[in-house]
Design a protein that fits this description.
- This protein is α/β, with parallel strands linked by helices and 141 residues long.
- The protein contains six helices and five strands, in the order E-H-E-H-E-H-E-H-E-H-H.
- Helix 1 packs across helix 5 and helix 2 crosses helix 3.
- The longest helix is centred in the first third of the chain and has 13 residues.
- The model has no long low-confidence stretch (mean pLDDT 98).
- It binds D-ribose (RB5).
- D-ribose (RB5) binds next to helix 3.
């Protein structure tokens, strides 16, 4: 699986942590930035990650900002992107099983690193359940 990751300055440190973690799981990571703690604008990075998922260059995306809210608002403006802002593993799992979320958003100033990696592991390992949930997704388009 190939995962695009992006963050603003509020999520930069988590993005680095998540990138290392994904590599440790044997996954391929494409990092669109940002690359420092300098202040940047989250929509620029949400756009880049979503484009890679829309183009099938990457299977899924992970976006981190301070709260995760800006990233989720930005990502969900893109066609065929289903972005889920998660603060714990249960909603991360449900976002995959029921919503087939293809982008995960996290708040680098909201949760701790262990919770973040628990969410990421759950989210990358959980498959979409299909069935009635696909019918509901079809109504989103
Ligand atoms: C940046 O200060 C902050 O506003 C951003 O990371 C994010 O939390 C926005 O939703």
């Amino acid at each position: 699986m190939k995962i695009a990751v992006g963050s603003d300055h509020g999520g930069f440190e988590f993005k680095q942590l998540i990138t290392d973690f994904l590599h440790g799981l044997g996954l391929t990571v494409e990092d669109v930035g940002c690359y420092s703690l300098d202040s940047v604008d989250y929509p620029d990075f949400a756009d880049q990650v979503c484009l890679k998922v829309q183009n099938n260059e990457c299977d899924r995306g992970i976006l981190v900002c301070g709260t995760g809210i800006g990233m989720s608002i930005s990502a969900n403006r893109h066609r065929d992107i289903r972005a889920a802002l998660c603060h714990e593993a249960f909603t991360a799992r449900m976002s995959r099983e029921h919503n087939n979320a293809n982008v995960l958003c996290l708040g680098g100033r909201v949760i701790g690193p262990e919770i973040a990696l628990d969410i990421v592991r759950t989210w990358v390992e959980t498959e979409f359940a299909g069935g009635r949930h696909q019918r509901r997704l079809d109504k989103l388009s």
